[in-house]
Amino acid sequence: MKIHVDTLNFYYGAKRALTDISIDMRANEVTAFIGPSGCGKSTFLRTLNRMNDIVPGTRVEGTVQIDGADVYGAGTDAVALRRKVGMVFQKSNPFPKSIFENVAYGLRINGLAKGKQLHEQVEWSLKGAAIWDEVKDRLHDSALALSGGQQQRLCIARALAVKPDVLLMDEPASALDPIATQRIEELIYNLKKDYTIVIVTHNMQQAARVSDTTAFFWLGTLVEYGPTSTMFTQPGQKLTEDYITGRFG
Fold first, then answer.
1. Does 48 map to a domain?
2. 248 has pLDDT over 80
């Protein structure tokens, strides 16, 4: 099992945000987290690469393992973990640098490539994020001049550059128009050949289109988890059915 989580509880100070989450996610699949706002989807996503560590007063109980290694173990290097478990955020956040330097940045600071190898790795990453053909003639232009959808694919290229195993995506298409959204969804589908992908989405149709398995969260608990096709046609819980059919949320 690629990602194994057992009885995870997560606290912001005294407030418990996640309660007894247990879930296993397989390699080279897309797992979608769905549920209403504030139900714990993004908080849980961030426990997988310890992004919550940067918030003061947070605390974790339980087990999170990736490839059998304890994410919260005493010897775990959070920086190395985040190289292995990349993240793409809801709002595209390119650096105010050139397109090339956005992708090269992680490679440089991690000492992973230089010279000709750096250029090859940047090209590989941009191709992997399906944006190379659009930017190859303007690599030294500012990334901020790209459209919203292009910026988001650039951020995906930046995440891919350091060759992660797992890619976390927090509502990666929520700020994009339908055509840009479709591009991101096609990209997710293609990337799962090489990566394990976990995506948070508010969009039921998107979850149905891109994911292999779906997890439904409600008030910090995991209500139901299973194959996406089953979840959307024969959910096992009334609460899941009510959410998917739009009765609330």
1. yes
2. no
Alpha-carbon gap, residue 135 to 27, rounded angstroms: 31
Residue 44 in domain = yes
Tell me how far CA of residue 53 lies from CA of 46, 57, 78, 121, 219, in angstroms: 9, 9, 9, 30, 21
CA dist., res. 74 & res. 158, Å (int) = 28
Structural domain boundaries, residue 14: 3-96+165-244
Cα separation, 142 vs 220, in Å, equals: 40
Q: Is residue 154 part of a domain?
A: no
CB contact set of 54 (below 8 Å; sequence gap of 6+): none
Question: pLDDT, tens digit, for every residue of 152-178?
Answer: 999 999 999 999 999 999 999 998 999
The span from the CA of 145 to the CA of 167, in Å, is 25
- The first and second tokens of residue 127, run together, are 């191709």
Which tokens in the block code for residue 49?
């690469």
Model confidence at 109, pLDDT cuts 50, 70, 90, reads confident
Q: CATH number of the domain at 57, please.
A: 3.40.50.300
What domain count does the chain have?
A: 1
Torsion of CA 136, 142, 145, 147, to 10 degrees: 50
The more confident residue out of 53 and 114 is 53
Question: Domain for residue 216, yes or no?
Answer: yes
Q: What is the pLDDT of residue 249?
A: 65
Query: Exposed, middle or buried by CB within 10 Å (0-12, 13-18, 19+), for 56?
Result: exposed
Closest by alpha carbon to 17, among 216, 220, 215? 220
